[in-house]
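User: Structure with coproporphyrinogen III, tokens only please.
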Amino acid sequence: MTHLPPVKPFLEVLSGRRQPIPPIWMMRQAGRYLPEYREVRARAGGFLDLCFTPEFAAEVTLQPIRRFNFDAAIIFSDILVIPYALGCDVRFEAGEGPRLDPLDTPDKVGTLATNGDFTKLEPVFEALRRVRRVLDPKIALIGFCGAPWTVATYMVAGQGTPDQAPARMMAYRYPEAFARIIDTVVENSIQYLLGQLKAGADVLQIFDTWAGVLPPREFQRWSVEPTKRIVEGVRKQVPNAKIIGFPRGAGALLPAFVEATGVDAVSIDWASEPSLIRNKVQSHVAVQGNLDPLVLIAGGAALDRAIDDVLANFAAGRLIFNLGHGIQPETPIAHVEQMVKRVRAHKG
Ligand code: CP3
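Assistant:
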């Protein structure tokens, strides 16, 4: 007797088969809004210790699955592990976000390693293997990396910035040095994503959180082209690899991003215009999104209405229900429960 492996609704949507009830997960679903995350985080010590201790990283990856029975788990790590593997000094200071030594001149860029030390990332692969072993086979496991543009904004500025001015300025002033950062992140991200697939990831997501600050020409050069090279590099080794793009804030440039990069799905932010998404994006690939994380904090009737809007806008096509960006730490857990219940009650 043969047993077919159980179907993963999440992967079905990415493979072209709309599901009557859209699969659901949340960006940044493992995090500070959960008391059980805060408990493990305190035991781990530093944020990078949490990322690089497989037992802890696997545990926090599974916490939101146990609570909400989401259709996908995302491996707990961070986009800045690539600069870390490249020898950058990456620090997470309490309440302040990431800090790196700024790579803001061609001379400094000259000191950047070409090949990352992947032994430093082995704990992420081990955490993936651990999660894979215990995860319900109906639930998909997502691996990820930052898109080169977004990773470079932190490498150049040495920290998060409101408008990514240091990286934008460097790309205009020293395009060759800036391209060297981008190319290095592209090549190492391909290796990193392939390692995650080998360790058990079913799907990959490329986070380009700061894509929306670029003028169209720069968007093409620093967001679309590097993402396309990552997609091609991964598929050269794993031809059927499933990949989700997230060029946050791309707006009217989104259809061109989808066409050029060859991603299987795009995550869309809450400001996306529904008819443009339906006609020019969802007609080609699956869409993921796009509830405003603030309405999830507000809750109540405003939350119900916003959920219904997402479903009315996109559930007739291929949809993975998600937020338009990561969940915020002050979000009440009861509101997440309200969201999951309402989405799963959808009659589609
Ligand atoms: O649950 C998941 O989605 C998986 C884990 C995940 C984290 N970061 C954990 C994290 C993912 C997918 C990321 C991606 C990430 N990291 C992005 C792109 C997506 C996005 O949200 O825009 C970016 C820009 C980063 C860089 C980063 N990491 C910043 C700017 C910060 C500080 C801001 C903050 O939210 O605290 C981090 C830290 C970080 N990464 C935390 C978590 C849970 C909080 C750290 C803590 O517990 O103190």
